[in-house]
Amino acid sequence: MSSDPALTHRNFYGRTHGKTLRAAQKAYLAEDLDRLSLKGVTRDENPERRPLDLTPWGDAPLWLEIGFGGGEHLVHMGALNPQTQIIGAEPFVNGIAMLLGKIRAAGLSNLALHPGDVRDLFDVLPDACLSKAFLNYPDPWPKARHHRRRFVTPEHLLPLARAMKPGAEFRVATDIPDYVRQTLEEVPPAGFDLIDQGSTPWSDWLSTRYEQKALREGRPPHYLTFRRR
Ligand SMILES: C[S@@+](CC[C@H](N)C(=O)[O-])C[C@H]1O[C@@H](n2cnc3c(N)ncnc32)[C@H](O)[C@@H]1O
Question: Where does substrate bind (predicted)?
């Protein structure tokens, strides 16, 4: 198998479909998904893996949310930062439909999405284009033999680091102590300095569905902030 990440088949172990979609959610997907999706990210659309042309967004700072789930944090950040362009990547179609409903309700025009694996997006993001990235409650993969599937591994972190500007902020929120351990071990060697960590959220934080579930089940959140070197 080729070692070129653009040519290597990627396994995705998460879910892409859940409960049957409601009629309104099907309508959001049919009517809004194509317009809001970045073009030239998938291998079918861009087999040469040419970098995306971001010039239509001008000088707007570009942020990325990895695995936005139901989209509540992404929409909150978009509303709070109207001069910023934010991309969300998420392969779970039910989450994508929820996000589209929230974008409609909020009337936002500064959000775009990749309805798929963020690694495909990394292939085609230009160098040093992102000034912030969010990783909220990444899949925990609790079994030791699955820890290499976690986002905080070089396979994900090195392409993310390449796409981030020097000085750009990378935020991680998790409720899993062993995920904190692996984040502290693996993120700095990928090109980031730890700036802060603890149980106090960022001042502009919006609690996500997974955080609410963690709190109900008695798992306290932990927040980590890194800066790209
Ligand atoms: C535990 S959920 C958290 C969702 C949301 N961030 C929250 O806090 O409620 C993790 C999410 O990451 C998404 N995910 C996992 N691997 C991904 C990948 N390679 N690219 C994009 N999203 C991914 C999953 O589909 C899932 O929705």
Answer: 143, 175, 208-211
